[in-house]
Every structure is written in C-alpha cells, then in structure tokens.
Amino acid sequence: MRVALLVGLLLVASTGCATAPSIRVTVEGTGTTDQLTYLFPGEQERTLRNPDMPFERLGTNEGRVVVRLEGVHGELTCKIIVNGRQVKTATSNTGAALTCDHAMAA
C-alpha cells in the first residue's frame, strides 16, 4: 500500500502540476515619477499619480507583466522578478519615460 501511494505521489509530481509563478515588480531609486502604470496578467491595468517610492507589487498569473513610469525626476530603476530571478531591469535618470516589460508563456 505504501509503495503504491509513493508511486502515485511521484507520478503526480512528475506530470507537471505547475504552480503559479511568483512575480514581483519593484521601482526604487532616489527619484520620483509623475505617473506609474502597472499591469499583471488577468488583472486590470492600474495607474498611480505621484506614487511613493520605493514601489512594489506582487502577482501570480503567467502572461505579460508591464510597469511604465512617465515624468521621471531623478534616478529610478524598475525590475521584474519571477520566482526569485530578475528577468528585466531598466534605469532612467534623464527624465524620460521608463518601461519594464516581460512576457511569460501562458
């Protein structure tokens, strides 16, 4: 009985019962931004005016992740981190718009 249970558990583990990814979006630095827009898969796009820094949000659905800053003053860096691995980073210190964008297989 124990052997059958162990074999069953091993089969379930090896058939790709995937868990949802852990997605973290951060914006940090010494600057500020007039507007920050972010989008996680399966959620509505959200826009914040004059958000506090540092900024961080978490998500779990596979798909396209985007964070966009407009009206950057000073230096800011955006990062997208999936399952503890940084997959995208961008820095602005010119006042230009700043975007981090990463697509995962859905």
Descriptive report:
With 106 residues, the chain is mostly beta strands. It has one domain: Immunoglobulin-like (Sandwich). Helices cover 12% and strands 52% of the residues. It contains one helix and eight strands; from the N terminus they run αββββββββ. It has one helix at residues 2-14; strands at residues 23-29, 32-39, 46-49, 55-59, 64-73, 76-82, 85-92, 98-103. The chain has a four-stranded antiparallel β-sheet with strand order 4-1-6-7, with no helix packed on it. It has a four-stranded antiparallel β-sheet with strand order 3-2-5-8, with no helix packed on it. Strand 6 (76-82) and strand 7 (85-92) form a beta hairpin. The longest helix has 13 residues, at 2-14. Mean pLDDT is 86; it is low at 3-15.
Query: How many domains comprise the coordinates?
Result: 1
Low confidence ranges? 3-15
Order of helices and strands: HEEEEEEEE
Question: Which class in CATH terms?
Answer: Mainly Beta
Instruction: Determine the structural class based on helices, strands and strand pairing.
Output: mainly beta
Give me the CATH fold name: Immunoglobulin-like
Order of strands in the sheet with the most strands? 4-1-6-7
Helical segment count? 1
Tell me which CATH architecture applies here. Answer: Sandwich
In round numbers, the mean pLDDT is: 86
Radius of gyration: 18 Å
Question: Considering DSSP H and I runs of 4 or more, what fraction of the residues is helical?
Answer: 10-25%
Broad shape: elongated
Strand content: over 45%
Signal peptide: 1-20
InterPro entries: MmpS_C
Keywords: Signal
